[in-house]
């Protein structure tokens, strides 16, 4: 290999080039959020007189007030529903994933490898493919257009089980489990008092993924719900967005609502960021 080719390749993998690529990727990710922030401060007339990233006359508080007053404050219902769906689903779902991953990794039972293979297969199945079967199942159980029709399916996450299994393999030594059994601890006590604290960073990672996935979930509520009072924020704002062509006054409401809908995700990421990074780093090292 000639020296010129080596120099050309080293130029592309140099630190400034990597930094430039990271800056471009960061801008690509942040520009929609910047547009959302500037647009939420505008009145309806400012959208036609200002640029995309230009602040108009400060109208954010008026937009927020109108948002929560629209349709008798139904946005409050959507926020509460999303908190219940995402909060409850993330906590319970993370615990279920942790228990399943621990069981597959650290216990011996017939069909364990087959079960893990089926779990990996479930990771590859798009959620949209399961929407119709879930609707038919919910219809048989007579829970369509109820809170439980959306909440129960959110408790299962094959990818979360996979992450928990991998982390349990790496973070929970077999010797510690054997010592707990010698001391007389049963399976449940061993899991909750010994294994779960060791798996905490991995469980927090699963919880964060669960929370983000459920908060942004759109297709499943669209299929299973018709009562607007049960909508999550994502579906409620979508319903409003379909009215913008006929009723332009919904435009600032949808944009302001989208900005407020992003804030819980940012807060959850910042609160859980340390544990999440610890879990990823520990898993990569081990």
Describe the protein in words.
This protein is mainly alpha-helical. The chain has 14 helices and no strands. It has helices at 3-12, 15-39, 60-69, 74-106, 112-124, 127-141, 147-151, 158-171, 174-182, 187-198, 200-215, 219-224, 233-241, 250-285. Helix 2 (15-39) packs antiparallel against helix 14 (250-285). The model is unreliable at 281-286 (pLDDT under 50). Residues 79-271 form the ABC transmembrane type-1 domain. It is a multi-pass membrane protein. Pfam families: BPD_transp_1. Keywords: Cell membrane, Membrane, Transmembrane, Transmembrane helix, Transport. InterPro entries: MetI-like, MetI-like_sf.
What descriptive keywords fit this protein?
single chain, 286 residues, mainly alpha, 14 helices, 74% helix, 0% strand, disordered C terminus
Question: What is this structure, in a nutshell?
Answer:
The chain is mainly alpha-helical and 286 residues long.
Low-pLDDT stretches: 281-286
Structural class: mainly alpha
Order of helices and strands: HHHHHHHHHHHHHH
Number of helices: 14
Number of strands: 0
Q: Roughly how many Å is the radius of gyration?
A: 24 Å
End-to-end Cα distance, whole Å, is 36 Å
Mass-distribution shape: globular
Strand composition percent = under 5%
Major sheet details:
none
Whole-number mean pLDDT:
84
* Helix content, binned percent: over 70%
Layout of helices and strands:
Elements: H1 3-12, H2 15-39, H3 60-69, H4 74-106, H5 112-124, H6 127-141, H7 147-151, H8 158-171, H9 174-182, H10 187-198, H11 200-215, H12 219-224, H13 233-241, H14 250-285
Membrane topology: Multi-pass membrane protein
Protein name: Carbohydrate ABC transporter permease
Keywords: Cell membrane, Membrane, Transmembrane, Transmembrane helix, Transport
